[in-house]
């Protein structure tokens, strides 16, 4: 639905935005909704999935720091990512699982350091 257009993220060149909405699908363990980082920060997407009956939101992500920004913004950016995932669980009363890629990609001065981290499962209000 939402393709990020950020420096060093080239998804818009190899993905096409979806047009099916934010659906949840039945599984033997409940209804699941899943999408990537570009949408994980959009509260309306989580709300629509919850209203469609989702019991679990899953966010596989690949978010990282630019080398020149990590020292100044790194801890706050990671904290914001964790906070938005928790807020989806709280606001919608459903479980949230979030995982993020780990490692470094690209040349040392221009690449991305993926911060890793995972949150599984989060449910702070039901």
Structural write-up:
This protein is an alpha/beta fold and 126 residues long. The chain has a single domain, classed as 4-Layer Sandwich (Nitrilase/N-carbamoyl-D-aminoacid amidohydrolase). The protein contains 3 helices and 8 strands; from the N terminus they run ββααββαββββ. A 5-stranded mixed β-sheet has the order 1-2-3-5-8. A hairpin with a 6-residue loop joins strand 6 and strand 7 (112-115). Helix 2 runs parallel beside helix 3. The two termini are 27 Å apart.
Notable characteristics:
alpha/beta, Nitrilase/N-carbamoyl-D-aminoacid amidohydrolase, five-stranded mixed sheet, three-stranded antiparallel sheet, 3 helices, 29% helix, 28% strand, globular
Could you outline the blueprint of secondary structure elements for this entry?
Blueprint: E1 25-27, E2 30-34, H1 37-40, H2 43-51, E3 56-61, E4 64-65, H3 70-92, E5 95-100, E6 102-105, E7 112-115, E8 118-122
Parallel strand pairs: 2-3, 3-5
Antiparallel strand pairs: 1-2, 4-7, 5-8, 6-7
C-alpha termini separation? 27 Å
Order of helices and strands: EEHHEEHEEEE
Helix content: 25-40%
* Count of alpha and pi helical runs: 3
Q: Sum up the overall morphology in one term.
A: globular
What class would the helix/strand composition place it in?
alpha/beta
Number of strands: 8
CATH fold assignment = Nitrilase/N-carbamoyl-D-aminoacid amidohydrolase
